[in-house]
Each structure stands twice: as structure tokens, then as C-alpha cells.
Amino acid sequence: MRCLLYIGLIIAGCNAQQKQERRFPDDFIFGTATASYQIEGGWNADGKGENIWDHMTHTKPHVIKDSSNGDMAADSYNNYERDVEMMRELGLDAYRFSLSWSRILPNGFSNHVNEAGVTFYDNYINEMIKYNITPMVTLYHWDLPQKLQDLGGFLNPLFPEWFEDYARVVFEKFGDRVKHWITFNEPREICYEGYGWSTKAPIVNATDIGTYYCAKYLVLAHANAYKAYVNDFKATQNGECGITISVNWFGPLTDSADDEYAAELKRQAEWEIYANPIFSEEGGFPKELSEIVAKKSLEQGYKKSRLPEFTDEEKKYIQGTSDFFGVNHYTGVYVSAEEYKSNHITPSLLSDIDVGTYTPPDWLASASSWLKLSPNSIYNSLTHLHNKYKNTKFYITENGWSSPPDSELVDDDRILYYRTALNSLLDAIEAGVDVKGYMAWSLMDNFEWMEGYTERFGLYHVNFDHPDRTRTPRKSAFVYKEILKTRVIDPNYEPDTLTMWIDEGH
Ligand SMILES: *[C@@H]1O[C@H](CO)[C@@H](O)[C@H](O)[C@H]1NC(C)=O
């Protein structure tokens, strides 16, 4: 539009203006994301059962950097109206949040439903619907009922049945209003960090088989829930169901064939192990990874591969069980076949693939050791996924930046990160990737897992010293709001005031 005003100016100038003003499609969904344990608090309120994060933080507080926990967190259990008010201030189209399994089913099993827990989510969802904010609901964002962990959790072959029972309760209770379902958030973090290592609850640290057994039963559980939805709910509820997988970018350090292969192995270990069984044409675990684990397992004296293969029947059952691919994307690293290797515990996923990783020291650093501003990483990840899994629809279900707890409300690094990421996303859309939405992580500061409250991801600052958990918008909230309103990334936009308001119509 603005180009019309410049008729008479040189055409090159007009083109530059047009290029700067590329837009997100009108039906593109912008939102923010959170997770139950990170924001809710009310850890034992009104009949909620204990989950693995309650259990771990209460029995081993030292594993959390500041020895904190999510007992109260941002207290969204008592602040849901304020949360929705913030969504209205930002002008969100959608809000992605997760359900706490043990708030709904205190023991994990569906024989006892905690009605007070259901009421909490009813209120949260109804408040969003009242203001035309679309709820996007994750069934599982890492807070397994402790009773199920006592039975082995994701390593128990019965896990897929337990998850299906829970999913059915949730579809039944909320499916009249919720039309976007995500079964699992980030299988890698659940399986590798929680079972194959010790950087997430339940810190099982079964380095040899934890990741692989968890991967198998998680993927089967996902397929069970998807089929339950399609067979028994979709016809009347008319929604969609998918999974969210963390896909950071792993590119080769050099263009040598060895580095290309190393990067492919790394991608297989990081996310294809969960995505391939669901989205690929051949089904099952990724080929090269399967072969390496099988070979090393036999060499190490195991009777069979530590990676438990799917049967042909299971492969068919799982294929195509997702209406979309939810991508959580934060950063990228380079992968090398020979250089930058660490000494890994053997046997483990990392020693199985045995590659090195490198992050250029000049990439902008966040408050999180793993999170750097990596150029073009959304574009690289999405175009790679798009070429690999044809005709797949994507959402970015998380993307965001951390700052230290004492940082100012003026968060220019976060703003730079969001603008860079959203430009990279526009590049992917222009390259033909079918991306329907983007959820910024996060609406507000929250309990950052093993880092406690020492890393802040919020568009809104939360005062964790105040009993009301007061929420205050950062500068990035105003910038995000402007992008949502205009559908354009203006690199020069500066808010005139840091006072929030609700636009008419929201
Ligand atoms: C995890 O297991 C490995 C291998 O047994 C061990 O070396 C490591 O110390 C364990 N980590 C923790 C945090 O217990």
C-alpha cells in the first residue's frame, strides 16, 4: 500500500520498501505458549496428585540450580483471568498451554477424575473462548503422575494404554471447545534428558537404553491417542491432533561427505527418531541410526539392539498419525565427524553417534547456555522438514529467548531474536513451507526446569517475590503486539510507552 504514496520515486526504492514489508498471511495464527508445571503452581491444590517434577524437586531440591520448585510458580491456578487479560493485551489469536495429567487424574489412571482440576481448565478455556482466543492444548508437557513413574513411566510397555485412557478423558471433557490438540511436547527432552540422561525429571539416567525404550513407547502412545481422537471424537468435535518435536538446526561444519553424514546422524538422534515413525514414507526408526545402534550393541555384548525396533504391524499403525508437525525451534549448531568431540559415557545415544558439535563464539548469547542466535536456523529446519516429509503442515509451537532474572524490562536482545526468527520464518513460507502459526515462548516468566527461576523467557516479567506474582509487560511484548496487529516486521518500530492496553475487538 505504502508504495502507492511513493509513485514518482525511483522504482528501486519502491521495491526495497516492498521487500521490507512482506506480510504474514491473514489466516496465520499468532500466539504464545506455556506449560502447566512451569506456570500453574497449586501443586497439591484441590485434589491434584503428585507428578514427577513435584517428586523430584521435593526429594532432591539440589538438582535445581536455585533449589526452587514449581509449587507456586507464576500461580496461574489463581491468576487465569489475568493470564487471559495479557493474551487480550497482546491481541493473540491463539494460546498454547498444557494440561497437568495428575491435576485431572491424580493417580494417572482414569478410574478417578478430579473434578476440581477439570473445573480449573474449563474456566481457563472458557475465558479464552469468551475473547475469541483459540486454545491449543498439549496433553503432556513433562509432568507425569508420580504413580505412573513408580511403575516405570515411559519405559513400561503399558504406557501407551495409560496415555490413551488419559487422552480419552481429556477429549471427552474439553473437545467441545478445543480444536487443536498436541499429544506430546518434545519427545527428545522427555526421553533423552529424562530417561537416557539426568537433565530432566525423572532423572532415570539409563544411558544405554533409556532414550530408545522411551522413544518406542512414546511414539506408540502418541499413535494410540491420535487414533482414539480420529475414531471416536473427530467426527463430532471436528478438530486436529498432532505432536510437537524439538527441531533445532544441525548443519554440517564443512561440506565434506563425512560432516554431511555426521549432521544427518545427529538429526536422526535428536528428532528423526521420534518424527520418522510418524511422518516418513518408510516408517520406523531412522535407518542409519538403527544400524549403528544395532552394530554397537552386539559389539558391546548385548543380545540384541538397544534400540527396540517396531514390528511391521506397529510401523503401519503409527504412520500418518498426525494432522500437523509442531516444531519447537530455538537455535542451531554445526556438526563435525571428527572435531569438537566430547568424551561420552558408553553406551549411550551420544557415544552411539559419536559426532562433535560447534557453536561460533560470535553468535549472540542468551541467559541459557544452549541458546544462541543462530542465523537462518528456522528457515533451514523448516525447509529440511518440508523436503523430507512431503505435504506436511507445520506450526512453530515454541520459539523464544532467555534473559537473566535481574534484567531490565527493556529487552532489546529478545526483540532482535524475535525479529530475526520471524524473518527466517517468512523466508520459509516464501519457499513454500506450509506453516500455519507461530507460538512465542513464553507468555510470561516461569519455572525453567533445572534452571529454576534463573532464566526468564517471558514477554511479561513475573515478580516471583510478590505473593500476587505480578505480571509486567517487557518491551518485547509491545513489539510482538505490533507485529501481530500489522502482520509485518518493522525493524524500526519503537513503542511510545510501556503501558499496555486492550485494543477494541479483543
Ligand atoms: C549417569 O550415569 C553415568 C553412567 O553410569 C554416570 O557416570 C553418571 O555420573 C550418572 N549421572 C548422574 C547425574 O547420576
UniProtKB/TrEMBL annotation:
GO biological process terms on file: carbohydrate catabolic process
Signal peptide: 1-16
Pfam families in UniProt: Glyco_hydro_1
Keyword Signal assigned: yes
Keywords: Glycosidase, Hydrolase, Signal
UniProt-listed SUPFAM superfamilies: (Trans)glycosidases (SSF51445)
Organism domain of life: Eukaryota
Molecular functions (GO terms): beta-glucosidase activity; galactosylceramidase activity
InterPro entries: GH (IPR017853), GH_1_N_CS (IPR033132), Glyco_hydro_1 (IPR001360)
Family: Belongs to the glycosyl hydrolase 1 family.
Identification of the protein by name: Myrosinase 1-like
Species for this entry: Vanessa tameamea (Kamehameha butterfly)
